[in-house]
Structures are given as C-alpha cells and as structure tokens.
Amino acid sequence: MNQSTKGFTLIELMIVTAIVGLVSGIATARFAVSQARSKQSEASTNLKAMFAAEKAFSAEKGRFSSFVHEIGFSPERNNRYAYWVGPGTTLTERNDATGKEVATPDDVGINYDSSKYGTAYPFDSLTTTAPATACTTTVPGLFIDADGGPAWSGIANGQLDDDATTDIWTISTVNRIAATTMICDSSGQHNPAGVPLVESNDVTR
C-alpha cells in the first residue's frame, strides 16, 4: 500500500516566516517602550523625595531652599536624570567611579551619574542648565504663586534612549494646569501639588 506524505510548500513557509517576523518585531517594539517607561519611575520617585525634603525643610525653617544639600536631597547613584531644586548651573557632579561626589554648599542640583552613563551622545544633551519646559514654563527654585505666597518647583531631566530628545519632569508646591499645546506631553492635565508631571516624554518622542 502506497503512503503519500504531504509537506509544506515554499510559499507556505515564506508566509509563516513573515508572520513570525512581524509578531517578533511588534513584541520587540513593545518591550522597548515598556523598558523605557520603567526607567521613568526614577524621575517620579526622586521628585517626590525632593518635594518631601523641601516641604520638611520649609516646615522647620519657615522658607523654601534652592540648595540641594541644604534640604538633604541625594538620590541613589546610577541616576540617569539630572535634578534641580533651584536655578543655576552648579550641580553636584557624579563622575567618580569610586562613588565619591564633587559637591559644594551652593549646589542647586544633582547631575546625572556620568561615571555610569558617560558624557558622549546622547547623554551630552543633558546639560548643567535646567531645561525649558513646554507645559508649565517651570523654572526650578522659588517663586510667588497666584495668591502672592512663596512657592517652589523642581525639575528632572533624563535620557531614556539613543536620540537627542530628553525626558523632562517637574513638581511644584502649587496646583497647576498643563498648557494645551502640541509640544506638551501632558497637554491640559490638572497637576496637583506634589505630583510629578511629565512635560516632555522621551518614550513617545
């Protein structure tokens, strides 16, 4: 008795290969986005810690501070974001592989950990100047709120991928509404005091 076996044709194999490639590409892209979003948790967590430190300092001293070491804010090393609690360019440098920092009492922030991430592209786009913000025109440090009282804002600027766009987050002691504009990644959102707001989302840019 003759038995015939039927295998796959070349066209069938090509179709299956194409489908597997397509699914693999989609999964890879989604994984990359998920990985980038997980990196953003650093900015959110550290800005909340910065806010808590600023509020505690204010409760004790009766004023806000623009100096990072005065309020005791010091995020863990390996930070891919730079942080500002006040205006200026004097940041605590983290460029020593031994874990030492180059700090001064006048530091207005903490620079990203260049001993881990280096200073070449794309991290060279993280400068020592706080970035301009699109949603809230936030400037780090002290300001007077709409009611005429003292207020404070902080900024985080980080690099999540391999392009020049950076990830910008802000936090403030006042309630805010993000501007309604195409370049604002939190366009129109109500932002309560003490809640980090993403203004330029490097995951989607």
Largest sheet: 7 strands, mixed
What is the number of domains? 1
On the 0 to 100 scale, the average pLDDT is: 88
Secondary-structure class: alpha+beta
User: Percent of residues in beta strands?
Assistant: 15-25%
Radius of gyration: 23 Å
> Quaternary arrangement of the chains shown?
single chain
Series of secondary-structure elements, N-terminal to C-terminal: HHEEEHEEEEEE
Residue windows where pLDDT falls under 50 for at least 5 positions: none
What is the number of strand segments?
9
Query: How helix-rich are the residues, as a percent range?
Result: 25-40%
Element layout with pairings:
Layout: H1 10-61, H2 68-71, E1 81-84, E2 91-94, E3 109-113, H3 114-117, E4 141-144, E5 150-158, E6 167-172, E7 176-177, E8 190-191, E9 197-200
Parallel strand pairs: 2-3
Antiparallel strand pairs: 1-3, 1-5, 4-5, 5-6, 6-9, 7-8
Explain how this protein is built.
This protein is an alpha+beta fold and 205 residues long. It has one domain (42-200). Helices cover 29% and strands 20% of the residues. It is built from three helices and nine strands, in the order ααβββαββββββ. The strands form two sheets. Strands 1, 2, 3, 4, 5, 6 and 9 form a seven-stranded mixed beta sheet that branches. It has a two-stranded antiparallel sheet with strand order 7-8. The termini are far apart. 34% of the residues are buried.
List keywords for this structure.
29% helix, 3 helices, seven-stranded mixed beta sheet, 205 residues, alpha+beta
